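tool_call: predict_structure(chain=1)
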Amino acid sequence: MPPTASAIGDARTGWQYPPPMGDGDGDVVTGSLEPTGRFSTAGLSRWWHAAARSDELARAPLGRVVFDVPVVLFRDASGAAAALVDRCPHRNVPLSVGRCVHGQIECGYHGWRFDGAGRCCAVPGLAERGDPDRGARRVAALPVVESDGMVWVAVGAGGPATAEPPRLVGVGEPGYRTVGLTLDVPGPMLAAVENALDVPHTSFLHRGPFRGRAERVPVGVTVRHRGDAIEAVFEGEPVPPGLIGRLLSPDGGVVEHTDRFVAPALAQVEYRLGSRHIALNACYTPVDDRSCRLIAIAAYRLPIPESVARSALLPLARVILGQDNRMLRLQQQTVERFGGERFVHTPIDVLGPHITRLVRRLERGEATSGALPADEQVTLLT
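tool_result:
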């Protein structure tokens, strides 16, 4: 349980958190040390979440955790991706520590084998004849779809909330190359997605590798609602300083920049200049209420050798993501220490509040196909 207020200070001292501040109308809003009990959890377990990149499914089983559910991934006899709950029904050993044998997963403890539907296919040493499959010997199979270089699962009861997972930009399209990475993230999904789509922090936290101009430039932003997605379109933005900008255009220019959230947990960032295009597809799959896993594929179309692009993009991504992870870890530690979140938003927190409201509506089962909020206009300095 998160610490209570008494663990971080004595309210009798008069110390207030957050400090008194104006609310914009002349009134003063005062905070206190009392924990809010609010945390950025997201209850969308019935939606499709990325469990792995397709190229991560090799010969060995792959263990993952999605919404606190242990999952084992492997390829069945036909080569299709399969997903089972990661527990052998015999003695509760994780199947992910076993091996794959002829398209079946073999438990590393006693050698029981299961197919992609969770049926028991073999019990070594059992003298009885006939099919070894029995109801009690089966493993629960999870809905699984493989598309756009990702393996998607839905772990919530009642079946998947949507027919298909979200689509990734650029992946599999002619003329595009891709590079992927997987990384543990020390914060909940909503915090991680907000960070990924938050432009203002890049000028400070990522100064040098990305952005951080000497003089700030005003850029107009249009926020658009698209049912289960929200996007921010940046208008008239100069090529950002740093390596990304040099890859797009060494001579500068104005980029087409779009940031997008697609339910349940996909952050997309696109930079386009003429025929040059870089699209980051970042899936932040909840592991539990306090952490998630980033499973990302960047698709790019650039007039430079693939080896040059890969040698530039991956190291840059690891530097930036390492800086983000440090802040997300500190943020989560502070939230838990104070017993809950207290956020203050401004107009340049372009997508974060919208994303949270959308996720809350989806949690309540509210349809997003009706009348959508009007576009919003914001100006920020980049």
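agent: Helices lie at 189-196, 202-205, 243-248, 306-337, 352-363. Proceeding to next step.
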